[in-house]
Amino acid sequence: RNNSMETHTSLVSKLLIVASIAYPIFVFSIFPNWVIDDAIIGYRYSENLAMYGSFTWNLGEPPVEGYTGVLLPVAVAGGITLGADPFVVSRWIGIISFFLAWVLLFLTFRLLHIRDMAIALILLLYGTTSVLFTHATSGMETMLFITAIFFSLYSFARFLSDGGRGKSALLSLALLLTSLVRPEGVAFSGLVFLAALYFQYKHRRNELGR
Questions:
Q1: pLDDT by residue, tens only, the chain of 210 residues
Q2: What's the gap between Cα 194 and its chain centre?
Q3: Contacts of 116 (CB under 8 A, 6+ apart)
Q4: What DSSP designation does 128 have?
């Protein structure tokens, strides 16, 4: 009977995980094409960077910072350089970020040995949260920032699971990207970095005391 219950639970969790990825795919396929005003402001910086090599609002004038973070407008500028529409580039960055965040959540929970049913329910909640669809398609960096935070947490979990001996390069990369997406990412990355240093210090101190 226990084996039957475990098999049933495993099947249900797998179905929920499939639903958590199938539902957003369907939503994005029918979601309207739109963009908010702030994203259009960022496009101007991206276009000036791509076409003139100047990360500024008006060419030849003192720089004015009208963007939130550096990473998204630079990425959009890269797309413009390749001949892509900034609207399309920012939209796809948002959508891809949505699914990358899903993957990072899954990997983090598996790394932490969370039960399959709990993972499935959390992923289903994430995949059906309507406001995330708005963020992913708005042309802004919000979804990218969420993904960067999840990347940092996953990298930090791997760092801890390895006893602080390895995976520091991955963690450093994640914290750097998080800092570049939004200014508050610097504060978040600083806290995670200090926590990593403290863990490494405690771990090495315990090893020396043996």
A1: 556 666 777 899 999 999 999 999 999 999 999 999 999 999 999 999 999 999 999 988 877 888 889 999 999 999 999 999 999 999 999 999 999 999 999 999 999 999 999 999 999 999 999 999 999 999 999 999 999 999 999 999 999 887 656 568 899 999 999 999 999 999 999 999 999 988 887 766 665 555
A2: 21
A3: 9, 10, 13, 14
A4: T
Of 167, 129, 181, 175, residue with least CA distance to 151: 175
CA atoms of 165 and 195, how far apart (whole Å) = 14
Termini Cα distance of the chain: 47
**8 A C-beta contact, residue 24 and residue 98:** yes
Closest among 69, 94, 142 to 86, alpha carbons compared: 94
Residue type, 85: D
Torsion of CA 133, 55, 183, 102, to 10 degrees: 30
Q: In angstroms, what CA-CA distances link 73 with 38, 63, 134, 162?
A: 12, 15, 19, 35
State CA 142 to chain mean position distance.
9
Structure-token match 């709990």, residue found: 118
Q: What letter represents residue 75's amino acid?
A: A
Q: What is the pTM of this model?
A: 0.91
Distance (Å) of CA 83 to CA 78, 87, 96, 120: 9, 12, 20, 40
- Residues sharing a CB contact under 8 Å with residue 39, sequence separation 6 or more, in sequence order: 90, 138, 139, 140
